[in-house]
Amino acid sequence: MKIWIDITNSPHAHFFKGLIRELEKSGHEVLITTREFDGLTEIMDMLGMEYYVIGRHGGATLEGKLMASAERQYKLAKLIIEEKPDLAIYKHSAEAPRVAFGLQVPSIGFVDNETAIGQNKLILPYTSLLIYPKAIDAYELLKSGADANGMRPINGFAELAHLYGFIPNRKVLKELGLRKYDYIIMRTEPIKANYFNADSERSVLEDVIPLLPDIPIVLFPRTEGQRKRFEHFENVIMPEHAVDSLSLLYYAKLMIGAGGTMNREAIALGTPTISTYPGRLLAVTKWLVELGIKFYSNNPQEVAEHALELMERNGIYKNHIRAVISSMENPIDVILREIETYDEVGTFEVEKSLNTSNPWSYMSLNDGGDKQKKY
């Protein structure tokens, strides 16, 4: 089959890298599309993907988002009419579902953010098979237009797929002047996201860092404005280009994040994590907190106190996190099974049974070229 995968955000490149490799190993032809956004193409180059660059992110305003999305949908439609894929796959892409639906291309979508209602209403009604973490109440997705007969919950979360091909590499530590297990990673709020409704002018991390002055902190800002607000902290390091963030997370003592993806990547790797997200918490975040493998607070004093505790008892927390994670499903396994079923019988088999295969089973080296095409 020819399978089209649309990658629209930096974390999605890591989510799909393993699926792409496995599909290619099975003899499928894979067509990859992406857009210009937040260093995404640089990450895809680093992962050795070949892709078409179609469109760009529209920025923080509604007007910008609408115009950029409409333009990208038009350009995508032209390419897909020409390429004629048999199946479309995406994660929170607002354009791919509508193009696939309009051209009668069956689709598989992965969604793990039930709070992105506007985006979900552009995705869920047009998705043939929706895969989502079981932590999300299906009713929340049905309200945004999901088909009750085409939903497949999994006992896991998206970032388990990011471990495909991963072997920790200390090179990035040398590059940044760090020692393993002797630093913290932080990530700022997703202020450009359409679901973000908290203060975009100040980060809670600005009040946490002064309470942790004796340990190096690697901070990943999302905008230049955010970067400037952290430049005066002497113990803060901000990488200037895309780096091996998974290795950084693996060797970190702790992750403190005001977003979602890097927090869950850290948990997938067994690194203790504190969420400081200031808005409505995702169902996945609440679930991980209830399981005792993630911690939450946006009170700076509480965050700092808990950070010190987690660093002091680091080994105990890491062992607990990895024990809980070991019983979860890897999204790669689920999507591959659904593709195999579709290839054989021409329809999706919504399998409800729990697969307790090792979610880390795809950790190995990967390779590839570095070609891209503009469209």
How does this structure look, described?
The structure is a single chain. With 375 residues, the chain is α/β, with parallel strands linked by helices. The protein folds into two domains: 2-156 and 329-374, Rossmann fold (3-Layer(aba) Sandwich), CATH 3.40.50.2000; 171-325, Glycogen Phosphorylase B (Rossmann fold). Helix content is 38%, strand content 16%. It has helices at 10-25, 40-46, 62-83, 96-102, 117-123, 138-142, 171-176, 205-208, 224-230, 245-251, 261-268, 283-290, 300-312, 314-325, 331-345, and strands at 2-6, 29-36, 51-56, 87-91, 107-110, 129-133, 151-154, 184-187, 217-220, 236-237, 254-257, 273-275, 295-296, 372-374. Helix 3 crosses helix 4. The model is unreliable at 351-357 and 364-375 (pLDDT under 50).
Distance linking N and C termini: 23 Å
Class per helix and strand makeup: alpha/beta
Please name the CATH architecture of the largest domain. Answer: 3-Layer(aba) Sandwich
Unreliable spans are: 351-357, 364-375
Series of H and E elements: EHEHEHEHEHEHEHEHEHEHEHEHEHHHE
The CATH first-level class of the largest domain comes to: Alpha Beta
- What is the share of helical residues? 25-40%
Strand arrangement, major sheet:
7-6-5-4-1-2-3-14
Briefly summarize what is shown:
The protein has 375 residues and is α/β, with parallel strands linked by helices. The chain is 38% helix and 16% strand.
